[in-house]
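User: I'm preparing a small set of examples for a lab meeting where we compare how different chains pack in three dimensions. I only have the primary sequence for this one, and I'd like the structure in token form so I can line it up with the others. Please keep the answer compact; I'll paste it straight into my notes.
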Amino acid sequence: MASRCSTKIVAITLCLFSILSLRALHQNTSTIFHRLLSSSSYESCDIGTISLPSQPIIPIYAASYPGSGSQMTHYLFEAVTGLEAGSEWLHRGDTYDHITIKTHYPARQKQVDGNRLMHRVIILIRNPINALPSHYNYLYEKEHDLPDHTAQAPAGDWIKWRDQHFKEELVLWKEHLIHWMTEYQSEHRLVISYERLVNAKMGPIETTRIANFLGRTEGVNVVSPASIPCVWDRVVNYQRVDIDEDGKIVQNNTEVEARKLRPKSDVVYLYNENGEEQRKLDKKVDELMVRRRVKYISADDPINPGNSRRKGDVIHEFSKDQLHEMRYTLNQLRGQFLNEYTLVVILSGYIEEIEGELKSK
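Assistant: Understood. Below is the structure token output for the 361-residue chain.
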């Protein structure tokens, strides 16, 4: 019994030491990136054109619970590689021309079609204290035929939905993370957090981790390390717009609208695991060549990803019991993945935020 206790104490001590070491490393690295952001070479990056890969590439899952910032990271993956990021609703995994394919599975049941060879994942997580309200705002916009990221749901509507669905959605948030953490070995997955990505100091560091992971895909070239702070800034602090062949902005640009900009090709090629042509789909599809412009968004602007993109009061209210349940869930996950140091640091930050909310109750 004493031996077991000693083992647990050693494990906990090592974990805490690793957390402190990671924090120290992040602080030192963030100082370097802060200097890069202020340097004269900062403006020298171009994220304007997305092209087809020069060879078939196996896409990576971009997995997240709804409301966690998947659209922002979608653009970040494209900016880092110059290749299109796909979506589970619009794209397949066996056309081998997307750098990532976004999915909310298993929090939502839709899976990526043609995913047989997809064996790597980027797991994007966001504190449920913010992810759940963000997800409900999306549902509210859809229910009322409002454009995405334009309105905050009224307090009464939020509280009604929250009390009806809180337990169910928290379980889905938890199961989503467990699924992707356990489905893939550590060398085949990358855990990133929305909160770090929109943070001025941590954002370029997280983007560097993303670039390194994406760059391990055969046939994929990523931007240089010196360009990372600029690329990060152009995605987070600028508004992306699609432009047509004449350079005019395409209004109401969505993923579907953007696809209309691409010239037509007669077939799409499917490949086997050896990269050999397997068959051609007998239909017309959009060949990719999207051109984009960006417009600066102040960090104080409500449409900056670091803020809410929606008009109206930001509503993140939870009952005391719900906050306790979130904290308990996060503590469970932290204990379950004690050896996953990056995840432990992220979850610890989430727990601290929830404890701060509890103290204000």
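A couple of notes for your slides: The radius of gyration is 21 Å. The chain has one domain: 2-360.

User: Perfect, thanks.
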